[in-house]
Amino acid sequence: MRLTVSSVSAFRGDRLVLDRVSFSVPAGGALLLLGPNGAGKSTLLRALAGLKRLDAGEVRFDGAAEFAGRAAYLGHQDAIKPGLTAAENLAFIARISGRPAEAGLLALDLGKLADLPARMLSAGQKRRLALARLVVSGAPLWLLDEPTLGVDAASVRAFGQILAAHRAEGGVVVAATHLPLPLPDAAELRLGEAAP
Amino acid sequence: MTAFAALLGRELRLALRHGGDSFGALLFFFVAGALFPLAIGPAPATLARIAPGIVWVCALLAALLPLDRLFGADYDDGSLDQLLLSGLPASLVALAKAVSHWLVTGVPLLLAAFPLAVMLQLPAPALPALLGGLLMGTAVLSLLGTACAAIVLGARRGGVLLPVLVLPLTTPVLIFGAAAADAASAGLPVRPHLLLLGAYLAACLPLCPVAAGAALREAVD
């Protein structure tokens, strides 16, 4: 399960934000995307997820160009429905993946909050719930955009164990971050300076 | 299939939690329909003549109300990204949304149309034709509405654009739906009108989800 990205280019509006980006991440590997604001980190992650159309280049995961349903994406937004409880928020992905929602809640120490409406959760707890969705998704490719923003130190450590377990199963992680992430021996990719 | 059922279940659960939205559409339907006798006068013969038209126009407008939040909420909070990554094709995501809109808004409108039509003195023989037409008509509205809601997604002032886009497309539904009820009151055959409505539904059923799916992909790009 190797993620191969070959000379990917993408425009945002009329600005070329990704200019022939190439890299490869092996099974169990992790890649950190670094660079200033506006360097194209989020655009690259959305492109890898298949949400943003590529203007050139190719992305292959496990040899296939089409891997919808095998990638989990965590964007800036938590995609949490305030009217549903924490457990119900994970029910959709749980039914698709066939994995229990409880496993995700417990992994991020949200077990006690499972039956609380998500609107009662703090910003950090909502982020943890979004991280729990990764666990439940069971997807082999994780695309993370600032995953630990607003998350407390204990939960970052817990997330570190989750990332390690995911990689031990052969999963691939690509993460954009400005904060230190618990991803030991991750490769780094520095994206270009932002255009003025 | 599991993913489709899971998405439909999620949509229905959300609609149940935010019950006010669909109840609001239903109240609007009743209030708007009840305004006509006040404006035109309560003469039973006049009301009976225009009752099918009133029910149809009010149902059309009421079905529009929840449309701008159909994808809007998911687009704003990032859930739409998650839905499109669930492995379900975008067109099936749209179809699930259309089905949920029909179940949550169309079916209650259909049930509410019965008392409203009786209140407006619609002759009893015309009732089955009116409700039969609405059964298909509300389904067409949900499909067209879903496609248009996806198309205006991300546009500024999309809420204003949406009715302008949906309403012209629904004119055939309005014409044949009201004509079916009219024909029934006049003792003429109803079948041709309902068949034409059915044909329009048969065309919308495959086309609207495909159009909506393409629009959703464009919206998250």
Description of the molecule:
The complex is a heterodimer of chains A (196) and B (221). Chain A has 196 residues and is of the alpha/beta class. Chain A has five helices and eight strands; from the N terminus they run E-E-E-H-E-E-H-H-H-E-H-E-E. Chain A folds into two domains: 1-70 and 141-196, 3-Layer(aba) Sandwich (Rossmann fold); 80-139, no CATH class. In chain A, the strands form two sheets. Chain A has a five-stranded parallel sheet, sandwiched between helices. In chain A, strands 2-1-4 form a three-stranded antiparallel sheet, with helices on one face. Chain A is globular. The model of chain A has no long low-confidence stretch (mean pLDDT 91). Chain B has 221 residues and is mainly alpha-helical. Chain B has one domain (2-220). Chain B has helices at residues 2-17, 19-40, 44-64, 72-77, 79-84, 90-119, 127-151, 158-169, 171-186, 191-220. In chain B, helix 2 (19-40) runs antiparallel to helix 3 (44-64) and helix 6 packs antiparallel against helix 7 (127-151). Classes of the chains: A alpha/beta (196), B mainly alpha (221).
Termini distance of chain B? 26 Å
| Helical fraction of chain A | 25-40%
Low-confidence stretches of chain B: none
Number of helices of chain B: 10
* Radius of gyration of chain A using CA atoms only: 17 Å
What would the keywords be for this entry?
heterodimer, A: 196 residues, alpha/beta, Rossmann fold, 2 domains, 5-stranded parallel β-sheet, 3-stranded antiparallel β-sheet, 5 helices, 8 strands, 26% strand, globular, B: 221 residues, mainly alpha, elongated
Summarize the structure.
The complex is a heterodimer of chains A (196) and B (221). Chain A is built from 5 helices and 8 strands. Chain A is an alpha/beta fold and 196 residues long.
List strands and helices in order, with pairings.
The complex is a heterodimer of chains A (196) and B (221).
Chain A: E1 3-12, E2 15-25, E3 30-34, H1 41-49, E4 56-61, E5 71-74, H2 86-97, H3 101-107, H4 123-137, E6 141-145, H5 153-168, E7 172-176, E8 187-190
Parallel strand pairs in A: 3-7, 3-8, 5-6, 6-7
Antiparallel strand pairs in A: 1-2, 1-4
Chain B: H1 2-17, H2 19-40, H3 44-64, H4 72-77, H5 79-84, H6 90-119, H7 127-151, H8 158-169, H9 171-186, H10 191-220
Helix pairs in contact in B: 1-2, 1-6, 2-3, 2-6, 3-6, 3-7, 3-9, 6-7, 6-10, 7-8, 7-9, 7-10, 9-10
